[in-house]
């Protein structure tokens, strides 16, 4: 396992699902973890206790990461707890399955703000720490929907595809400063987001099953531990999308 002792990881949307699994994995590898949540305070508190009881270090911070003022407070609180941010996992997101003829401008705006704008805001807020240290890891949790359209709607697919373009820009312009940027694009990971989507079916996945949050988390750990990997979209989709 990669040793992340002395590193500080900020994970957005950390209270459940993929974010929760990533938090556990990075904490186990030695990183201090700042756990962002928006509404799931009880789950965030439970995750914090589990990490601390296992000998790790964590702090929970409530923030709506689609709002610049709350992002500034989030990053400031994380710095107060563990110093500058070394590793940023942009994981916060929503998925509201909507038929094309029922999709509204409000649906579009909410999804773009939560899934894409938030990743921009938090990245911009955390980057000064990484640039000052000439070391950093940016990881964007995207989706197979960016490549195949998916089962949520065009608003969701667009938000995730936008992450790829943003990641590529950061990767190209920050590599010489010791900062890498990559995206993970999972497909149908067995979380609340999938179990609440009536369009999610195992037969869409060639391997015949949904993925597990821990499988995403283990890949994120490998990305964080590899300083030569940057500018890549890593597809973790059970064979749905073949590159």
Text of the CATH class: Alpha Beta
In the CATH hierarchy, what is the architecture at level 2? 3-Layer(aba) Sandwich
Integer tally of domains: 1
| Mean of residue pLDDT values | 96
Q: For the report, how would you describe the main beta sheet?
A: 7 strands, parallel
Radius of gyration: 17 Å
- Following the backbone from N to C, one meets helices and strands in this order, namely EHEHEHEHEHHEHHE
Determine the CATH superfamily: NAD(P)-binding Rossmann-like Domain
Model regions low in confidence, pLDDT < 50 over at least 5 residues: none
Portion in beta strands: 15-25%
Structural class by SSE content: alpha/beta
Shape descriptor: globular
Helix percent reads 40-55%
Order of strands, main sheet, comes to 3-2-1-4-5-6-7
Total beta strands: 7
Task: Describe the protein in words.
The chain has a single domain (8-236), classed as NAD(P)-binding Rossmann-like Domain (Rossmann fold, 3-Layer(aba) Sandwich). The protein contains eight helices and seven strands; from the N terminus they run βαβαβαβαβααβααβ. The protein has helices at 17-28, 41-53, 68-82, 105-133, 145-148, 154-174, 192-195, 213-224, and strands at 8-11, 32-37, 58-62, 87-90, 136-141, 179-186, 233-236. The chain has a seven-stranded parallel β-sheet with strand order 3-2-1-4-5-6-7, with helices on both faces. Helix 2 (41-53) links the parallel strand 2 and strand 3. The longest helix has 29 residues, at 105-133. The radius of gyration is 17 Å and the shape is globular. The two termini are 27 Å apart.
């Amino acid at each position: 396992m990669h040793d992340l002792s002395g590193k500080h990881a900020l994970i957005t949307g950390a209270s459940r699902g993929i974010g929760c699994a990533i938090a556990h994995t990075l904490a186990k590898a030695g990183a201090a973890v700042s756990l962002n949540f928006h509404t799931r305070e009880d789950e965030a508190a439970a995750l914090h206790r589990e990490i601390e009881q296992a000998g790790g270090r964590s702090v929970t911070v409530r923030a709506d990461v689609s709002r610049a003022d709350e992002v500034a407070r989030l990053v400031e609180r994380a710095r107060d707890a563990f110093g500058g941010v070394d590793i940023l996992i942009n994981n916060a997101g929503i998925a509201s399955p909507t038929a094309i003829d029922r999709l509204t401008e409000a649906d579009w705006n909410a999804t773009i703000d939560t899934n894409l704008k938030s990743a921009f805001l938090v990245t911009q807020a955390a980057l000064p720490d990484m640039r000052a240290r000439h070391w950093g890891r940016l990881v964007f949790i995207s989706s197979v929907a960016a490549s195949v359209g998916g089962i949520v709607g065009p608003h969701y697919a667009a938000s995730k595809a936008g992450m790829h373009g943003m990641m590529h820009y950061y990767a190209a312009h920050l590599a010489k400063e010791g900062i890498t940027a990559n995206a993970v694009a999972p497909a149908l990971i067995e979380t609340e987001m999938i179990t609440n989507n009536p369009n999610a079916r195992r037969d869409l996945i060639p391997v015949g099953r949904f993925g597990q949050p821990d499988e995403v988390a283990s890949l994120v750990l490998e990305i964080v531990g590899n300083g030569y990997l940057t500018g890549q979209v890593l597809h973790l989709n059970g064979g749905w999308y073949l590159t």
